[in-house]
Amino acid sequence: MTDLSPPAVAVERSEALRRRSRIVHAACVTAASEAAARLFTMSRAYDASDRSIARQQTQLRKLQQEAITLIAHPHQPRLVVDHQGADT
């Protein structure tokens, strides 16, 4: 035979289970929210570093091309541009 709990015990156990499941659900929601915030922050940092690397690579290519030009044409005057883009 199956031993069934009295209704009062069954209700108490089901309420306790419901409370625990709500606590676990809240913890999962919090963890998911924190993970999303971390992912957003890390994605922004990755994008910023990616842009910085791209700028550095562009600057390096310009300097390499300038060095090649100077080696190929050492006596030819060259145009110098300041940081604001004005010719000097």
Q: Could you tell me how far the N terminus lies from the C terminus, measured between alpha carbons in angstroms?
A: 100 Å
Structural class: mainly alpha
Q: Give the DSSP E fraction (strand runs of 2 or more residues).
A: under 5%
Largest sheet: none
Radius of gyration: 33 Å
Verbal overview:
The chain has 88 residues and is mainly α. The chain has 1 helix and no strands. The termini are far apart. The model has no long low-confidence stretch (mean pLDDT 87).
Observed structural traits:
about 90 residues, mainly alpha, 1 helix
List the helices and strands and how they pair.
Elements: H1 7-72
Summarize this structure briefly:
With 88 residues, the chain is mostly helical. The chain contains 1 helix and no strands.
